[in-house]
Amino acid sequence: DIVMTQTPLSLSVTPGQPASISCKSSQSLLHSDGKTYLYWYLQKPGQPPQLLIYEVSNRFSGVPDRFSGSGSGTDFTLKISRVEAEDVGVYYCMQSIQLPWTFGQGTKVEIK
Amino acid sequence: EVQLVESGGGLVQPGGSLKLSCAASGFTFSGSAMHWVRQASGKGLEWVGRIRSKANSYATAYAASVKGRFTISRDDSKNTAYLQMNSLKTEDTAVYYCTRHKTDYWGQGTLVTVSS
Predict the structure, then answer these.
(1) Could you say which DSSP state residue B27 is in?
(2) Pick from B47, B102, B108: which is nearest to A101 by CB?
(3) Which of A28, A50, B36, B67 could be stapled to B62 by a disulfide with Cβ–Cβ 3.0 to 4.6 Å?
(4) How many CA atoms lie within 13 A of A52 on its CB side?
C-alpha cells in the first residue's frame, strides 16, 4: 500500500497569516496518463470531508483562491495564503493512483 | 444538485450483520464508480472499498481489513449503492461515508457501532 505522510500534524495559525501542509507519498503518484492522483480535503468538525484540491493543483468548484496545491512525484504541499477562521478543521491528503486509496494522518489546523 | 445520503447504520453485536445504503441523485449514477470510506471516532479516514460501473463489469475491490466480510453492490435502477457488512468486529465501529469516484461529493455519513 502507498503510505501518505503529512507534516505537521497540527498547526496553530494567526488569522491573516499563511499556512502550509506537506504530504509525502511512498511511491510516485504520477500515472501513465500524465495525471498525478493527489487530492486534498478539509474536514470541519462534525462534517464529512470536503474536496479542496484535485490532481495536485486544481481547486474544486467554490474553493477560495487562498487555497493552492503544488508538488510532483512524491512531494506535495497545500498552502493557505491567508488563514481565515472558517478554515479550521483537519486537512487530509489522499492518493488514488492505486488501490487501496490511502490518506495522510491528517493535519489539525486551529486559529490562535 | 449532487446528493449522497447514507442510511442503515446502528448498533449491532460483534459477529452480527448490517447493510448500509447510499442513495444518490443529481448525477448519472450508473456511470460512476462508488466508494465507501470510514472514520472511527477521533481517527483518520480509511478507504473501505469500491464498486465500478456496469461498463466496468461492476468490479469490486476492498481494503484488506474488510475483505471477505464486507460486500459492495449497487442497483442502478434505484441509484443506490450498498455495503453489506458481515462478521462485524468492534474495530468496525465508525462513521461510514459514501462518495463517488471523483470524491467531489460525500454523504453525511451513517454511524455503525459494534458492541455487546
Answers:
(1) S
(2) B47
(3) B67
(4) 25
Q: Do A106 and B45 touch (CB under 8 A)?
A: yes
CA distance A106 to A4: 10
Enumerate the residues of chain A whose CB falls inside 8 A of the CB of residue B44. 92, 103-106
Task: Give A104 to chain B, closest Cα distance, Å.
Answer: 8
Distance CA(B9)–CA(B14), nearest Å, equals 14
Measured between alpha carbons, how far is A81 from B45 in angstroms, rounded to an integer?
A: 26
Backbone angles phi, psi at A28, to 5 degrees: -60, 140
C-alpha–C-alpha distance, residues A59 and A53, integer Å? 5
Question: Tens of pLDDT along A46-94?
Answer: 999 999 999 999 999 999 999 999 999 999 999 999 999 999 999 999 9
pLDDT score at A14? 97
- Cell (9 digits) for B51: 464498486
